[in-house]
Structures are given as C-alpha cells and as structure tokens.
Amino acid sequence: MAARRSTKKPNVSKEDLMSYYREMLLIRRFEEKAGQLYGMGLIGGFCHLYIGQEAVVVGLEAAAEDGDKRVTSYRDHGHMLACGMDPKGVMAELTGREGGYSKGKGGSMHMFSKEKHFYGGHGIVGAQVPIGAGLAFSDKYRGNDRVTFAYFGDGAANQGQVYETYNMAELWMLPVVFVIENNQYAMGTSVARSTKSPSLWERGAAYGIPGEEVDGMDVLAVKAAGEKAVAHCRAGKGPYILEVKTYRYRGHSMSDPAKYRTREEVQKVREQRDAIEHVREMLLSGNHASEDELKAIDKEIKAVVNEAAEFSRESPEPALSELWTDIYAEA
Ligand SMILES: Cc1ncc(C[n+]2csc(CCOP(=O)(O)OP(=O)(O)O)c2C)c(N)n1
Ligand SMILES: [Mg+2]
Fold first, then answer.
1. Is the shortest distance between the CB of 225 and ligand 1 below 6 Å?
2. Is there an atom of ligand 1 within 6 Å of 185 CB?
3. Of 85, 128, 235, 315, which is least surrounded by CB within 10 A?
4. Distance from the alpha carbon of residue 52 to the mean position of ligand 1, in angstroms
5. Are 192 and 156 in contact (CB under 8 A)?
6. Domain presence at residue 250
7. What DSSP line would sit under 49-75, residue for residue?
8. Probe ligand 1: pick from 128, 180, 187, max atoms within 8 Å of CB?
9. Which domain holds residue 273?
10. Would you say the CB of residue 187 lies under 6 angstroms from ligand 1?
11. pTM, whole model, 2 decimals?
C-alpha cells in the first residue's frame, strides 16, 4: 500500500480528533475482547474481526447525518459501534444472549438496529449491495434527503449483483454511497490473485457512476471523501463509489490459519500505517492531548468494553419459546 497519508497540518478541531480517536479505540478494544471471548468458547459460530479497518467506518460516520442508513457484510461490529449502537447489546448478541440486538438469535453476522438505521449484518457475500440500493430507493421514493452507505469488500466487488445494482442505482439516481472496503484479501485470496483491473472504483464508469480511491488508514481523508460523496448523493446526482484502501490485521475469521501472507507484512502495516496511531500522533504533536490524557481515554474505553463483556456473560440465554418468535413480520 503506497504511503499517501496527508502530512500537511490538518484542518480539524481538537474535539473532532479526540472523538475519532475514542471511537476507533472503542472498536479495536471491543474486537480484541470479542477475540478473547471467542477463544474462551463464549462466542459460537462465525466471528469476523474488524481490527485494522477502524478509520473507514469512523471517517464515514463523521460524514453522515442523523437518519442516514448503513448496511454491510458479516464483518460488521465496527459499523455497529460507529453508528452508535450499544456495545453491551452487540457483545451480548455475539455470546447469543437475550440482551443482544437480535435477542441472541442472530449472532455476529445478523444484527440490526432500526433506531440507528443499521440494516445488518449479511453473511452472503455481496447480498447487502442491492439491499443498500433498495434502502436508498425507499428514501428517494419518500422524497427525503437521506443517504445510504452500502459497504462491501474487495472480494464482493467481483460479484455480478454489484454491477446489476450499479446499473439500477445510476438509472434511478439513487442516493447511495457504495463503499468498497478494499482490505487486500477475500478470505485467503489477495486482490492481485483474484482481480484483473486493480482499480475497483473505476468500474463504476461503465455505469456512469463517479468515485475515487481513498486512504483508509487516514480517518481525515476518509471523512473528507465521505463528505464529498454524501454531498453528491444529497444533491440528487445519484450514487457515488468510494474504494477505501485498508487492511485487516487479523484473519478472515477466527478460524483462519493465515497461511497466505507473512507476519512481516501485517507487522509492517501495523507499524507504519496504523490509523489509531496516526490520530494519536496528531493529538500529541499538535499539543491537543498529553500522554496522560490519552491513557485516561484508554482506561475509560477498556471499562466500557469490560462492562459490555460482563453484560454479555450475565445476560441469560434466550428462552426456548423464542424459537417461535420473530419469524414472520407482524402485518
Ligand atoms: C455468495 C457467497 N460466496 C462465498 C461466500 C464465502 N465467503 C465468505 S467471506 C468471503 C470473502 C469475501 O471477501 P471480501 O468481500 O473482500 O470481504 P472481507 O472478508 O475482506 O471483509 C467468501 C468468499 C459467501 N459467504 N457468500
Ligand atoms: Mg476483503
């Protein structure tokens, strides 16, 4: 990944930087804890961690407004936390407990929050993309100026349904930002092995959809690109594509032996490109925060995550009668 991180003094307030730092740290610590709980056998089924990609959702949520919608894949815990869902409810869903967002019946990949306009959590690669266009269609139909963020991966970007969706979205000028989280891998397959054209966002040109590539390890760059994309959608100009170059530090899921890349490759990104470290450096070098203040934030976030973990262990398992509820929508 080329070093494209902005070096000029950022035009951002201390408060904003502090909140990005806090939000990214919450996702990272939450995911580390989820990894631990999984290791202890408290989380069953699939669990895909978002560690390394935090700046993507935090930057884009900073560009979003109340009422905007989001939908994503199974690597979804970061998206939920970034849009303000309660860490307790998310963690309790991971452990399959009553206090979880889907009452413990959905697990890591199947959580929703109508209140926060988070529409999942989808296990079928690429399936959330047409759903995202549908959400945007509903807003356009209602005549409001809401925008939908439809997140998907570099692997999903090779799915046919993505291009069917591009066509319809541009045809109907839908207010949807297609966010390609290019973390370089689809399970164990690198982009170079799966994809002929290296630039995924440029494929939108075939449908008349503009877009751009963004440094996904730089939260300020993501926010700026997000604002541009959202303005395009709100102005009634149709969809926009952001290909956000990022990196996942952990395996595809908890059961990934990670034989397809070297430890050195991961270590290099962590050392040279880490998004949280980047904001931390900006806070310290700009004299916005002292080491002690940042340590205090770290402590505070750890407490929030520990509380969520405790809740996720104490919340009871769903009653057997729950097997028969939430199957059909009530008319
Ligand atoms: C239709 C479909 N095909 C295959 C799979 C198996 N599968 C799950 S995740 C994945 C890789 C997707 O990679 P990417 O889109 O880059 O997302 P990332 O995991 O990197 O976030 C595959 C092939 C699936 N879940 N659904
Ligand atoms: Mg990927």
1. no
2. yes
3. 235
4. 18
5. no
6. yes
7. --TT-HHHHHHHHHH--TT-EEE--S-
8. 187
9. 14-310
10. yes
11. 0.96
| Residue tagged 């916005």 (tokens) | 288
Nearest CA to ligand 1 atom 4: 125
Instruction: Give the closest residue to 46 by CA, choosing from 78, 73, 27, 83.
Output: 73
Q: Which residue's alpha carbon is at the smallest distance from atom 5 of ligand 1?
A: 125
Q: Is residue 259 part of a domain?
A: yes
Which protein residue's CA is at the shortest distance from atom 20 of ligand 1? Answer: 186
Q: How far is the CA of 315 from the centre of ligand 2 (A)?
A: 33
Q: Hey, whose CA ends up nearest to atom 3 of ligand 1?
A: 125
Total domains in the fold of the chain: 1
User: Is residue 219 included in any domain, yes or no?
Assistant: yes
Mean per-residue pLDDT pooled into runs of 10, the chain (331 residues)? 52 94 98 98 96 98 98 98 98 98 97 97 97 98 97 98 98 98 97 93 98 98 98 98 98 91 97 97 95 97 98 97 90 71
**CA neighbor of 147 nearest in space, from 125, 180, 109, 179:** 179
Q: Say if 321 falls within a structural domain.
A: no
User: Cα–Cα distance between 4 and 303 in angstroms, integer?
Assistant: 34
